[in-house]
Amino acid sequence: MAVVAVLGAGSWGTTFAKVLSDAGSEVTLWARRPEVAHAVRSTGRNPEYLPDVQLPAGLRATSDHREALDGADTVVLAVPSQSLRSNLAGWVADLPPGATLLSLAKGVELRTLERMSEVVREVAGVPADQVAVLSGPNLAREIAVGQPTATVIACTDHDRAVALQQACTTGYFRPYTNTDVVGCELGGAGKNVIALACGMAVGMGLGGNTTATIITRGLAEVARLGVALGARQETFAGLAGLGDLVATCSSPLSRNRTFGELLGRGSTLAQAQEAAHGQVAEGVKTCTALRELAARHRVEVPITDGVHRVCHEGAPVSAMARELLGRSTKPE
Ligand SMILES: NC(=O)c1ccc[n+]([C@@H]2O[C@H](COP(=O)([O-])OP(=O)(O)OC[C@H]3O[C@@H](n4cnc5c(N)ncnc54)[C@H](O)[C@@H]3O)[C@@H](O)[C@H]2O)c1
Ligand SMILES: O=P(O)(O)OC[C@H](O)CO
Known about the structure:
Family: Belongs to the NAD-dependent glycerol-3-phosphate dehydrogenase family.
Order of helices and strands: EHEHEHEHEHEHEHEHHHHHHHH
Radius of gyration: 19 Å
Main location: cytoplasm
Bound molecules: nicotinamide-adenine-dinucleotide, SN-glycerol-3-phosphate
Pathway: Membrane lipid metabolism; glycerophospholipid metabolism
Strand order of the largest sheet: 3-2-1-4-5-6-7-8
CATH architecture of the largest domain: 3-Layer(aba) Sandwich
EC number: 1.1.1.94
């Protein structure tokens, strides 16, 4: 049986802790705020993020990261990508030696332009084969109520990926393994930016043809950048690429799509941020990191560029649409 510490009790950390527990793993969930840990312990619910979901009786919760990490063979990192470095720096002295470190975050760090597995390796000082990532069409709320989905666990060490797969397989959650860490991470980070663009189109009142075009051309630019960074093209046709892109761009449950929709209806960035109630729309920061990464590798990412200009340079959404449609025509 896997002994797992899940660090981060937001929507996805709480849901994934439930998945692991339902799969038979021994799980301790760490919450930043003591009152959240206390509520999970005393009511079996996370009132902040999933108030109506009953968590498994065996799931433990604490706000003391040492207690969560004690004896763990697997450490799940479930905090937003821009705060992963600082959070992990506070936990690193207490990480059990040899434990697998699994990142759930979907983003690229601003300034360093590092993927989450790179941040984890650097801060924890562990080899690449000790770090894994999980990415796929995984809207937390649907999974929390037991709706079926699949995902990808990527690690350069196949045996570690298989151990993680066994630790979280349930009747409603089906993980596949992959050794293409770069591809899975780029798929997860990139789809949040493309979902912002889809949301903007929906907010402007545009229909299915437009969103299908954004999804398809969005996949093309994310894959182009991923391959330039060493990813395998076929990963982008899988769950961590197309799968997650379709789920996020189509679902009103997606925070990134919802954020984009508000911008498309004319809200300012600050207004959209306020409406998100502190929940993270990773694409808002990742668009800037991906754009810089693409420039460094001389890869064209026009949709990501447009999202960055709307979010951070004050460009109107209508101008972004005009610019994208005004680009020179070319073969597919
Ligand atoms: N929610 C989903 O459906 C989902 C699914 C798959 C992947 N993800 C990814 O998982 C990661 C975490 O997402 P989430 O949905 O759990 O986020 P969330 O906003 O619901 O929760 C974030 C958690 O991190 C904690 N945290 C610790 N330090 C923080 C800091 N400095 N700033 C903000 N929060 C901090 C918060 O207290 C909270 O427990 C993101 O990268 C997200 O893209 C989310
Ligand atoms: O709610 P979002 O937009 O952060 O997306 C959640 C998941 O990443 C979907 O797979």
